[in-house]
Specification:
Elements (H helix, E strand, L loop, with lengths): L2 E7 L12 H11 L2 E8 L20 H10 L7 E4 L5 H16 L3 E7 L3 H13 L7 E7 L6 H24 L3 H10 L9 H4 L15
Parallel strand pairs: 1-2, 1-4, 2-3, 4-5
Helix pairs in contact: 3-4, 4-5
Amino acid sequence: MARFDAVLIPGGGLTPSGELMPFVRERLRRAAQHEAEVYIALSGGTTHAPPPLDARGYPILEAIPGAKYLRELGIAQERILTETFSFDTIGNAFFTRAAHTDPRGWRRLLIVNSEFHMPRTEAIFRWVFGAAPAHGYELTFEATRNEGLEGAALEARRKRELASLEEVRKLADRITTLSELHQWIYSEHGAYAWFLREGAFRALAGPIAESYGAK
C-alpha cells in the first residue's frame, strides 16, 4: 500500500443536528484505509446552510466531527489535523496548502472525495497546489461512493458541479500564483471577501439542498 505524507478529506456539509452526511463518512472510511503520516479533515462549513449548533450554542465546524470520526476509525488523534477556515472546495485547497502542507513540507498527498464531487475537486486541487511558487506536489485522487445521495438530489448536484467546473477552469487560466489567488479570494470570492458575504451566504432550496445538508 502506498504511503502518503497526508490524506486530505474535503467536507460535504452537516445535517441540521450536526451529524456527518453519509457520503462524507464514506470518504473518511476510505481515507482511514490508507497509510499516511497525517490525516486532514477539511472545512469550516458551507455557505449554503447555517451552521448547526452544539449543546452549548456554539457553531459546529464541519472538520471537527470529521476528525472525531477518523479517531473512531482507529487513527491516533495526534495524526489527525483539521482545516476549519474554508466554506467551499477552493477554500479547502487554499487553506490546507497555506496552513499545513507548505509549512510542514508534506508533498505526497491523497485527496479522497465523493464521485459526484471528484472532477471539480481534482481541477481545484491541481490548480491551487500547482500555483507558483510550485513545490513539486504529488497529488493522487480517489473517488468514493455517493453514499446516501441519489435520485433528484444527486442529479441536481452533478449538474451544478459541471457548471462550476467550467468556472474553475477559467479561473485557473488567469490566476497562476498564490499571491494572485489570495487577492482573488479576499476581493472577489463571496465566501471570504467580507463585503460580499451577505449575498454569498444563502440557504439552498429544492433537491440540491440535500447534498449540502440543508433542508
